[in-house]
Design brief:
single chain, about 200 residues, about 75% helix, globular
Length: about 200
């Protein structure tokens, strides 16, 4: 795998972790302030509403009592693919990936507003999840960009070429720093998912 392919794969992972963390924290927040309606259940309900009856009957006959689990699994795969795309495009063009996550937030808000279980507390939750995802994506991509810059400087992580040797605070974060941040964020997502 060449350097650009590696960077794209890591950016995709950053997108999945950022969006996953935002969704998990959004579900956790919904559990606290709006137990009857969360962004994921709202989007799932909206998908069920627009699917033709024939497709619903086919899904029930195919998956039986696991049809809701299959729906959630399918939604998870689509969200993960779009989140990975957001990471890759954010690495290539600043704020492009963030725009994809903003669309997630608007879709989540529209789904929440369209549900009969709507309460005032449910309204800000999809926006909170999207904002958290956007902040985390930009933060993770910034760490990845710093690692790429370090790799471009001869001799590995350190001061810019031609700059005088200075204190360690002046050194750029390394590959290890990116993976620590990515792993820590993924751990937060997992914990929030379990709690939600």
């Amino acid at each position: 795998m060449n350097t650009s392919q590696q960077a794209a794969a890591l950016a995709a992972a950053a997108g999945v972790v950022a969006v996953g963390t935002g969704l998990a924290l959004g579900e956790l927040a919904a559990g606290l302030v709006s137990p009857s309606l969360s962004p994921v259940t709202a989007v799932g309900g909206a998908v069920i509403d627009v699917v033709p009856p024939g497709v619903k009957d086919w899904a029930i006959s195919l998956f039986g009592t696991a049809d809701k689990a299959a729906l959630l699994g399918g939604m998870g795969l689509v969200i993960a693919a779009l989140a990975a795309l957001a990471g890759v495009v954010e690495l290539r063009r600043r704020f492009a990936g963030i725009a994809i996550i903003a669309v997630f937030g608007v879709a989540g808000l529209a789904a929440v507003l369209g549900r009969s279980e709507l309460t005032p507390n449910a309204v800000p939750v999809p926006l909170l999840a999207a904002v958290l995802g956007m902040i985390l994506l930009r933060w993770l991509i910034r760490r990845l960009e710093e690692w790429q810059t370090d790799a471009a400087v001869p001799g590995g992580p350190g001061p810019e070429a031609g700059a005088p040797e200075t204190a360690p605070a002046a050194r750029r974060p390394s590959r290890r720093r990116f993976f620590q941040v990515l792993g820590g964020t993924a751990a937060v997502a997992a914990l929030a998912g379990v709690l939600a």
